[in-house]
């Protein structure tokens, strides 16, 4: 395909869409699929066909809109009315929607009340949940159909790549560095710097690897991006490849995400057919292709060196760094591992420029961040907010608090590597540095809210149990330390703990933090330590009462 | 015999070979470096687990030592060395589901089936397992049966879940359907 | 030197070559950093976490064994913080380890025990979390005790990467990780070739030799048993390490003396058997070369680890194998025939003990029915050098002071050619000396064939004998064999000129001097020094070619008849069969 054809294709698709009286997009991500999205789409199509409206009403799928708990969601776009979002749809409601709303609109009517009897199912798109979000990575979710390349093109797809093809590798690195984009996989390392290291390496073969392992339990940002906007990740990887002269791309996606795998494979096929992937991409003479590999249920494989071992078909055990993957990675070749969300930001940065991106966020944390808001919260789901927004704004304004008469006690960020942030600290702005100061971390973006009925001790135990279960077992501090610490926490949870047990927890924590080989073991004590720091009374209350004191 | 027909003969042999699917599978993945895990996924996808004889055969065909295969099989939670049963019930034990009560759901099903997590019922019908986050935390707590996700399962639903399942497709039918695609 | 790295360790400046680890740089600065999982032979994995140090510039704690030192690094190795972390890690490690030192074969010779002693570890408040895992004694060559395993991974690296056998692996993950034979079966059913390299590299008592010293002591006490013993070439230059002798010290005379004091009635030397092997093998080579009586290249078969490996993985090479038994088997069978006859002893009473650098020999003695061609099991027990050292200690013998003695010459006198069998390339060199004589009728002008010596994984060379070019290859460490055999196969299939006429293979790196039953701590430095001890003896000896050994001539004249006679064939040769890699 020639570069100009991108616009031609996009224009054709846009014209087709604009010719429609009504467009309906139904969320086709895992969450809504499990609540029956496929039945809704089938019913809509059948009813529209019965009324002979196929030519005027388009029905399509789209990526997760963030309100999975209220799925299946259907978004209606029409010329005459503002967009309307319908939640908790059923096939019967779909029939009523066609009968009472769509048919008249498609017939050219402008309704006074375009929702009619479905009023109870309408989600207010002006409410804080949506209004306070700023969507970059998720901008296509809720609009474009992830299974259609043309729809991605309509939304500026592959224009970033086109621009990158006209730049030198160094210029691309500089652009991304200037944007201030930092890795969304947890560590927050500047993406442009990382690419530049890989760029400087001389090698016949180099790899760009997309880390789609997303093992943090309670986080599903990357799944939503992979399922909802697969071409954006593809494009991001190709730009990354240009930035470091990489020759091959590898997707590593956890096996628990079959739909994400499916979508990525489909996107690769489509792009290859369109000449966007494969040989002589966009007539540039450059060739690049992808491989897709599945995880197999091991959290530690999110760690980059373990991930590389897994791609090589081995046990996913981390190895010492240095050498870093950018020097010696997959098959001993220079490799760059990037997170899904990091990569999805890239096409937008190339397209709109580094300044546009750098204008969002705080001094050191630029852009937006996607969070998976779950736990004891009224509006749980996926949100994308600018960096620098406060935790309180996310939890209370966007999330609507607990939604029950219980009080929010705190929020866990950073998953099993992170920590508990008490409600008293909620006015802290979201940024890599601020969260770290609080003894937690950004992590990949899980935000789990607990209320005053939840026990911090038990939650800390839960996370530790997770890390013990997921420890690869290679190094002694993590393998044995985690198990011993878990025994001690069990003792405390059972009411048999003593002050010495807490002292031993601290001793083990130090050995793990400083003696473990990879970040899993190094950070595994964090939830316990942060709970001890912010909620120490919850521990002491649980300790065994000294018998002597009673006498 | 012309050269062409020799080629055809070879091709038709390959066509017939699929009766030994492991050989075909091994041939396919062998060409891609480091693809042992992908081959094991495919094998387990067909058989529901990885029996020892199959692992051995796969190893021989792919030129991978059995030790290597077992290192991998026992490292990754996803792989099973024993037949799990017809319905694999997975209860999410991720954080979001945990907070929303998945331990109770898990225990409810345990009681109902009379087995513990990680076990199968004696009749080979059900296998119960805890899994880490299925990525639908918004619908917590969550369970899945043979890969199909069921959201917002409150505790009392343990029974309901099983009932739903009883009408679902048995696993091998589902696998065949997937293959046919 | 422009690109040297300059850094400081505890304030002391060091200058080292790029790529040097912090650990090695520290050694240069006379700073000792404790380690557990790192073995000088093997690539560091960073498993134990004991060797952490602090990089003062960044505040980072790093593993010194696997981190290259960088320009300008300011490294601290011994602050209270570092010591506290190391102690914590060690305390955790010990909580998952049984405290069984007093009844452990590694007692006083254990890296973990030494570490605990260095740290002055006293009690711990952590409960013991040792899992209940069974021993694997199935091979009767080595014993696995996964409870004592610290999961350093050394054995696995050796078995998989250096030996390419893949008998051992990690199973499971996290706290449940353990070592086990491939696919969780008894080791004896796995491809294990019994080389014992895993045991030689283990820092603890988790893999040890199958101990048979008690059996030997019992026989020595038994008035009805007539115990004879032989020592392998490589034993004499290694056993001294257990008694404070310098590396490579040759202690043959002291060993003979000690064995007599233990109660052995006759003390033989496997070097004699090595000479005999050469006589038979060189004859075999000559007839294959000149008369085309068998396949070329001829491949040596005196290493049982290699024989097992070939039978399991390279069955197509059987025809190339020399049919000669290994030297100690030859001495064994002759003890119960030739010696018994000459001395008028009922062979049923004779109990043959071999002292070997090798764990594979423990299995070799029952490998096939030809190992009993005397009518009895030819060798009754094969001990390793490590077991032998323990027996000396148990016997109360002052090994350091004991005066040297001579062997019983009938099966104990030997030439330098027999001695060098213990080092990689030695068999080849010895065979070339005698083959030259067989082919040309005269001794080679120079008997040193340097091309076969040294620690390069595969050594190749050629020489011209009677106008004929002979190409040879020497491989040691089983992972190095593949490339040699592949060359042979490729040439064979293409119908081309064979790349070699004669190949020597030893399973262990360095040959038997680096054997799996040798004292611990083998590094290339140690292997080189042990080998040097053997080459020195060869150099200084009266006879340097096997065919010069007068006792061998006597053996043929009095007992065997001609070289390659029927009797020689029955007693000194064996056959091979293709074996499955897995018994189940
Ligand atoms: C135990 C562990 C799990 C991790 N899991 C993930 C993950 O699921 N996804 C991810 O992108 N990064 C994960 N990381 C971080 C990666 O190692 C790596 O830093 C990241 O993929 C780099 O991409 P980025 O620079 O775009 O953030 C994990 C790290 C550790 C130590
Ligand atoms: S810290 Fe834990 S997960 Fe990381 S290498 Fe060590 S044992 Fe494995
Ligand atoms: S830091 Fe760890 S890996 Fe390195 S030498 Fe010490 S114990 Fe071994
Ligand atoms: S392995 Fe070492 S530390 Fe363990 S019991 Fe044996 S001697 Fe003691
Ligand atoms: S060191 Fe201690 S435990 Fe060991 S034998 Fe002596 S007294 Fe007993
Ligand atoms: S004896 Fe040799 S082959 Fe057997 S497990 Fe040990 S290293 Fe592997
Ligand atoms: S058996 Fe020995 S060498 Fe092997 S992992 Fe365990 S401690 Fe290390
Ligand atoms: S390989 Fe070594 S130990 Fe084995 S028979 Fe030959 S010389 Fe003796
Ligand atoms: S090289 Fe020597 S010590 Fe090693 S297995 Fe062979 S004969 Fe035994
Ligand atoms: S999955 Fe449909 S809104 Fe999230
Ligand atoms: S925690 Fe259950 S789906 Fe994420
Ligand atoms: S000695 Fe290197 S980490 Fe164990
Ligand atoms: S018996 Fe050889 S030193 Fe080997």
From TrEMBL, chain A:
Pfam families: 2Fe-2S_thioredx, Complex1_51K, NADH_4Fe-4S. Residues 457-502 form the NADH-ubiquinone oxidoreductase 51kDa subunit iron-sulphur binding domain. Its cofactor is [4Fe-4S] cluster; FMN. It comes from the Bacteria. It catalyses: a quinone + NADH + 5 H(+)(in) = a quinol + NAD(+) + 4 H(+)(out). CDD domains: TRX_Fd_family. GO terms for molecular function: 4 iron, 4 sulfur cluster binding; FMN binding; metal ion binding; NADH dehydrogenase (ubiquinone) activity. Keywords: 4Fe-4S, Flavoprotein, FMN, Iron, Iron-sulfur, Metal-binding. Belongs to the complex I 51 kDa subunit family. NDH-1 shuttles electrons from NADH, via FMN and iron-sulfur (Fe-S) centers, to quinones in the respiratory chain. The immediate electron acceptor for the enzyme in this species is believed to be ubiquinone. Couples the redox reaction to proton translocation (for every two electrons transferred, four hydrogen ions are translocated across the cytoplasmic membrane), and thus conserves the redox energy in a proton gradient. This is NADH-quinone oxidoreductase subunit L. It comes from Pleomorphomonas carboxyditropha. The lineage of its organism: Bacteria, Pseudomonadati, Pseudomonadota, Alphaproteobacteria, Hyphomicrobiales.
TrEMBL record, chain B:
Its cofactor is [2Fe-2S] cluster. One of its GO terms (molecular function) is 2 iron, 2 sulfur cluster binding. [2Fe-2S] cluster binds at residues 92, 97, 133, 137. The keyword ATP-binding does not apply. Binds 1 [2Fe-2S] cluster. SUPFAM superfamilies: Thioredoxin-like. Keywords: 2Fe-2S, Iron, Iron-sulfur, Metal-binding. The keyword Nuclease does not apply. InterPro entries: NADP_DH_HndA-like, NuoE-like, NuoE_dom, NuoE_N, Thioredoxin-like_sf. Belongs to the complex I 24 kDa subunit family. This is NAD(P)H-dependent oxidoreductase subunit E. The lineage of its organism: Bacteria, Pseudomonadati, Pseudomonadota, Alphaproteobacteria, Hyphomicrobiales.
């Amino acid at each position: 395909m020639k570069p100009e054809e991108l616009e031609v294709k996009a224009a054709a698709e846009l014209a087709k869409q604009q010719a429609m009286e009504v467009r309906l997009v139904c969320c086709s991500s895992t969450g809504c699929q499990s609540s029956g999205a496929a039945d809704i789409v089938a019913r809509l199509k059948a009813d529209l066909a019965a009324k002979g409206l196929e030519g005027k009403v388009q029905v399509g799928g789209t990526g997760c809109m963030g309100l999975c708990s209220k799925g299946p969601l259907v978004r209606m776009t029409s010329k005459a009315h503002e967009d309307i979002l319908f939640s908790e749809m059923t096939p019967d409601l779909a029939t009523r929607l066609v009968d009472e709303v769509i048919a008249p609109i498609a017939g050219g009517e402008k309704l006074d009340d375009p929702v009619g009897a479905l009023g109870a199912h309408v989600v207010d798109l002006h409410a804080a949940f949506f209004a306070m979000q700023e969507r970059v990575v998720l901008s296509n979710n809720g609009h474009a159909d992830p299974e259609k390349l043309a729809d991605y093109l309509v939304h500026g797809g592959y224009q970033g790549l086109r621009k990158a093809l006209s730049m030198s590798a160094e210029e691309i690195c500089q652009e991304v560095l200037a944007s201030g984009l930092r890795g969304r996989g947890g560590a927050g390392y500047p993406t442009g710097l990382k690419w530049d290291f890989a760029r400087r390496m001389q090698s016949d073969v180099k790899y760009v690897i997309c880390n789609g392992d997303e093992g943090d339990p309670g986080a599903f940002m990357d799944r939503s991006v992979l399922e909802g906007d697969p071409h954006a990740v593809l494009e991001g990887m190709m730009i990354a490849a240009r930035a470091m002269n990489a020759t091959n791309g590898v997707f590593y996606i956890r096996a628990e995400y079959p739909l994400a795998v499916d979508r990525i494979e489909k996107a690769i096929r489509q792009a290859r057919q369109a000449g966007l992937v494969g040989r002589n991409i966009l007539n540039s003479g450059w060739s690049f292709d992808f491989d897709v590999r599945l995880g197999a249920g091991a959290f530690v494989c999110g760690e980059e060196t373990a991930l590389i071992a897994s791609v090589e078909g081995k046990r996913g055990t981390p190895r010492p760094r240095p050498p870093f993957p950018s020097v010696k990675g997959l098959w001993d070749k220079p490799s760059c591992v990037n997170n899904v969300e990091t990569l999805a930001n890239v096409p937008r940065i190339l397209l709109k420029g580094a300044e546009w991106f750098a204008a969002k966020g705080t001094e050191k944390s630029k852009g937006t961040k996607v969070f998976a808001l779950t736990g004891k919260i009224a509006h749980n789901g996926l949100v994308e907010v600018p960096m620098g927004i406060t935790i309180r704004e996310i939890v209370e304004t966007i999330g609507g608090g607990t939604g029950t008469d219980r009080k929010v006690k705190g929020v866990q960020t950073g998953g099993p590597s992170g920590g508990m942030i008490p409600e008293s600290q909620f006015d802290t702005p979201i940024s890599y540095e601020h969260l770290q100061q609080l003894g937690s971390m950004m992590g990949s973006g899980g935000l789990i809210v607990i209320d005053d009925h939840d026990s911090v001790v038990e939650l800390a135990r839960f996370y530790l149990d997770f890390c013990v279960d997921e420890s690869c077992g290679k190094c002694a501090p993590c393998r044995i330390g985690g198990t011993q610490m878990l025994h001690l926490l069990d003792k405390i949870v059972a009411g048999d703990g003593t002050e010495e047990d807490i002292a031993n927890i601290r001793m083990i924590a130090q050995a793990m933090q400083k003696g473990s080989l990879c970040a899993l073991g190094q950070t595994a004590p964090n939830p316990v330590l942060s709970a001890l720091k912010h909620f120490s009374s919850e521990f002491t209350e649980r300790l065994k009462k000294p018998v002597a004191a009673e006498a | 015999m012309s050269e062409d027909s020799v080629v055809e003969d070879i091709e038709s042999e390959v066509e017939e070979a699929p009766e030994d699917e492991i050989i075909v599978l091994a041939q396919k993945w062998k060409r891609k470096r480091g693809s042992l895990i992908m081959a094991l996924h495919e094998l387990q996808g067909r058989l529901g687990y990885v029996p020892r004889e199959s692992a051995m055969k796969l190893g021989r065909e792919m030129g991978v030592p059995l030790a290597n295969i077992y290192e991998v099989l026992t490292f990754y939670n996803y792989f099973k060395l024993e037949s799990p049963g017809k319905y694999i019930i997975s209860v999410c034990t991720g954080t979001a589901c945990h907070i929303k009560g998945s331990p109770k759901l898990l225990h409810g099903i345990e009681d109902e089936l009379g087995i513990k997590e990680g076990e199968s019922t004696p009749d080979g019908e059900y296998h119960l397992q805890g899994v880490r986050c299925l990525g639908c935390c918004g619908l917590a707590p969550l369970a899945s049966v043979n890969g199909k996700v069921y959201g917002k399962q409150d505790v009392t639903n343990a029974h309901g879940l099983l009932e739903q399942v009883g009408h679902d497709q048995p696993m091998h039918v589902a696998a065949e359907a997937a293959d046919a695609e | 030197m422009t690109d040297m790295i300059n850094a400081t360790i505890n304030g002391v400046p060091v200058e080292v070559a790029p790529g040097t680890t912090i650990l090695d740089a520290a050694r240069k600065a006379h700073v000792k950093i404790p380690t557990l999982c790192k073995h000088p032979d093997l690539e560091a994995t960073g498993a134990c976490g004991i060797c952490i140090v602090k990089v003062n510039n960044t505040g980072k704690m790093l593993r010194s064994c696997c981190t290259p030192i960088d320009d300008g690094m300011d490294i601290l190795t011994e602050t209270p913080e570092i010591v506290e972390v190391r102690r914590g890690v060690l305390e955790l490690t010990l909580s998952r380890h049984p405290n069984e030192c007093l009844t452990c074969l590694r007692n006083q010779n254990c890296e973990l025990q030494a570490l605990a002693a260095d740290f002055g570890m006293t009690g711990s408040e952590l409960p013991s979390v040792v899992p209940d895992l069974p021993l694997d004694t199935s091979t009767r060559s080595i014993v696995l005790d996964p409870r004592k395993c610290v999961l350093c991974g050394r054995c696995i690296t050796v078995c998989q990467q250096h030996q390419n056998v893949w008998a051992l692996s990690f199973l499971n993950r996290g706290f449940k990780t353990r070592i086990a034979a491939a696919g969780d079966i008894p080791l004896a059913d796995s491809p294990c070739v019994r080389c014992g390299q895993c045991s030689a590299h283990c820092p603890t008592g988790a893999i040890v030799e199958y101990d048979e010293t008690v059996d030997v002591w019992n026989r020595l006490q038994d008035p009805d048993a007539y115990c004879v013993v032989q020592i392998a070439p490589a034993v004499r230059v290694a056993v001294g390490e257990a008694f404070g002798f310098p590396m490579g010290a040759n202690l043959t005379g002291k060993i003979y003396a000690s064995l007599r004091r233990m109660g052995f009635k006759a003390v033989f030397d496997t070097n004699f058997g090595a000479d005999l092997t050469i006589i038979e093998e060189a004859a075999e080579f000559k007839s294959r070369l000149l008369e085309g009586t068998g396949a070329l290249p001829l491949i040596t078969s005196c290493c049982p680890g290699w024989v097992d490996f070939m039978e399991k993985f390279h069955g197509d090479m059987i025809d190339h194998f020399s049919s000669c038994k290994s030297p100690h088997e030859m001495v064994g069978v002759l003890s119960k025939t030739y010696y018994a006859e000459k001395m008028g002893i009922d062979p049923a009473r004779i109990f043959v003990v071999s002292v070997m650098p090798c764990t594979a020999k423990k299995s070799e003695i029952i490998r096939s029915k030809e190992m009993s061609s005397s009518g009895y099991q030819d060798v009754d027990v094969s001990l390793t050098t490590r077991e032998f050292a323990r027996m000396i200690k148990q016997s109360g013998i002052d090994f350091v002071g004991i005066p040297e003695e001579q062997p019983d010459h009938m099966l104990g006198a030997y030439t330098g050619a027999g001695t060098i069998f213990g080092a990689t390339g030695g068999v080849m060199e010895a065979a070339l000396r005698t083959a030259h004589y067989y082919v040309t009728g005269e001794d080679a002008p120079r008997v040193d064939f340097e091309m076969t010596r040294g620690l390069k994984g595969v050594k190749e060379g050629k020489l011209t004998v009677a106008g004929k070019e002979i190409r040879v290859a020497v491989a040691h460490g089983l992972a190095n064999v593949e490339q040699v055999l592949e060359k042979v196969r490729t040439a064979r299939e293409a119908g081309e000129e064979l790349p070699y006429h004669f190949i020597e293979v030893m399973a262990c790196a360095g040959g038997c001097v680096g054997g799996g039953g040798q004292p611990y701590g083998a590094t290339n430095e140690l292997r080189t020094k042990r080998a040097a001890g053997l080459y020195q003896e060869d150099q200084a000896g009266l006879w340097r070619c096997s065919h010069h050994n007068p006792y061998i001539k006597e053996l043929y004249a009095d007992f065997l008849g001609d070289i390659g006679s029927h009797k020689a064939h029955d007693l000194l040769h064996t056959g091979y069969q293709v074996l499955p890699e897995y018994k189940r």
